[in-house]
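SAM-dependent methyltransferase
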Amino acid sequence: MTPTLVRQHLPHSGAAPQVDQWARARDWAEIQERMLVPLYEAVYERLEVGSSTRLLGLGCGSGLALLMAAARGASVTGLQAHAPERLALARERLLPAAWGTRARAGARLTDGEPADIDDVATAAYNLVTAFEPVGCVAGDSEGLTEALAAASPLVGRGVPVVLAGWGPPERCATSSVLRVAAKLADPLRGTRDPGCWRPALRDDLEEVAERAGLRPDGSGRVACPFGYADVDNAVRGLLSTGLFDAAVAATDPDQVDKEVREALHPYKRRDGTVWMPNVFRYLVARTA
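Predicted structure tokens:
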């Protein structure tokens, strides 16, 4: 009888691998963030974002969604906590000094939470967005619920709040690659631990809205294919999301890199590019 080879992923010992946060932020801004452009466009078109819009972006990242809203004439404020590198890139994109004009003079960016906005009396935002996908990491919605509650003094009644998340796993080719993150992070317990990737659930967005005291008022699905120039580009983009951090901590960067490349193989085309069809979902909810 041929012996069976069983591969085990032992917990990583020693110091945690150092991550170049600036390189990761650049990879996010230059490679990965653009994959969500169809989602941003669909939401802005549906809500008729324009010159009368005062938008508050929670978790604004490196600012692409805010830039697109500003290009429509909206006045935008972005909040991003615990990611100074991404916020620095957002400042490069949005602040007037970067443009040499006053086109984005209404843009404001804050390193922190809604409570850190100092002009509560005059803010009067009429649109709140939280485009960072909900439901792709166990426990990721808890902080968002708190942020939405903290933003309530900055908006009036009936203001739309947009939440976003992954669509059904069977409609998202990238899910098969992200399962590598769960397998490597904790192969015995799977996706239950905080910080570990898990497939999106049907009511993820509605549950966040309910906990935040928001009233659902419509939803939509948007095709957001992930397309990359090559496998190296795809690996850099996917790792920039942070969804593989737990896997890196549990094993090592080389192991994660190797298995992600293997998982990407079915989506590599003859010309070397990588193409993964995905569907993202958004929920429009209203403040009470």
